[in-house]
Design a protein that fits this description.
alpha/beta, single chain, two-stranded parallel ribbon
Length: 208
């Protein structure tokens, strides 16, 4: 079981999820700007983190080191626990809202295409359930178009893999909703940036 819900804390924990190229960084930054502009003090973070475990993950994601799938999953879980204890929970406890670009749902969806989901959930059992998770659902070809200018294709960005991951995200969303009563909203991310942000904010404002 996941041990604590974010609504036990003072700040709101908001996660934005999606496959690579779906606009997570763009939307996280815009949501941060809008919330802070309305007096809702908010902090933005991301996974993998810039911490020591996150640095190893980034090396693996860009093919500079080679690790097994199981090691990948364990490193993501370790990075997440460190992230929660050092960065996320302290801010939520002091009343600051936290927006996170990726979280355990990415772990379950990316690794879950070829690993046991129950095991992935088990190694993340001390994760905090967000107050709200937004899944940006974007067409695969649109994601590839957005990623085209990048110099290096990351581990999970090949088209067949992304197709499986998108399907897996939908499965994971229903699984987590049913098992852990999580608040998850699916937002169409194919539209113009401002339109997508408006749709995300309409979900977020329900929390306040």
């Amino acid at each position: 079981m996941i041990f604590m819900k974010a609504n036990d804390l003072d700040g709101k924990f908001i996660v934005i999820e999606g496959i690579d190229g779906s606009g997570l960084s763009t939307q996280s930054s815009e949501v941060l700007r809008r919330l802070n502009s309305t007096g809702n003090t908010t902090y933005k973070t991301k996974e993998p983190t810039d911490g020591p475990v996150g640095a190893i993950l980034r090396l693996a994601l860009t093919h500079r080191i080679d690790i097994t799938s199981g090691t990948f999953a364990l490193l993501f879980a370790a990075d997440r626990l460190d992230h929660l204890e050092k960065e996320i929970i302290p801010r939520l406890s002091e009343g600051t809202n936290v927006i996170c670009d990726r979280y355990c749902f990415s772990n379950f969806s990316y690794q879950g295409t070829d690993m046991d989901l129950e095991w992935l959930v088990e190694i993340n059992k001390h994760c905090l359930i967000p107050d709200l998770t937004i899944f940006l659902d974007v067409d695969i070809l649109e994601c590839k178009r957005r990623m085209a200018p990048r110099m290096r294709e990351e581990y999970f960005e090949k088209l067949p893999k992304l197709t499986k991951v998108r399907d897996r995200f939908h499965y994971v969303i229903e699984y987590i909703k049913n098992k852990h009563d999580a608040n998850i909203a699916i937002v169409n991310g194919n539209h113009a940036i401002d339109t997508v942000t408006d749709d995300i904010m309409s979900e977020i404002y329900r929390l306040f």
